[in-house]
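Hey, resending since the last one bounced:
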Amino acid sequence: MLVIETRSAEETYELGKKLGEKAQKGEVYTLIGDLGVGKTVFTQGLAKGLQIDEPINSPTFTIVQEYDEGRMPFYHFDVYRIGDVEEMEEIGYEDYFYGEGLTMIEWSNLIEEILPEHRKEITIEKDLEKGFDYRKITIKDL
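The structure tokens again:
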């Protein structure tokens, strides 16, 4: 387990970028954190580390966004609005989770029962007592 503290959006972005530079094909990353905690900023950095230059936005209404221009495909899921796991089956989640790219799943705790056993679990937390831009980022290999 790795715990990193960042004190700005730029530091959170850079941490994501470093992780993206080390990412391997077929990995699944889960991302947990409250609204407004910096999940999208972290993911934008991760995509940059994968050499993806196009804008990265949270796929809140589409469930998954695919990016193919980097050094490997990047599949960005946001399952916040998902009703149940059957919706994931309808979009063929297994092709993404067990494919040739990197999969990032925001709000992964909502689909816990279908997550791969081996994954990186990333949790981002705020602590306003330590400052508005402070983030505690925990990375666990499961």
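The two ends are 9 Å apart (CA to CA).

Sorry for the duplicate.
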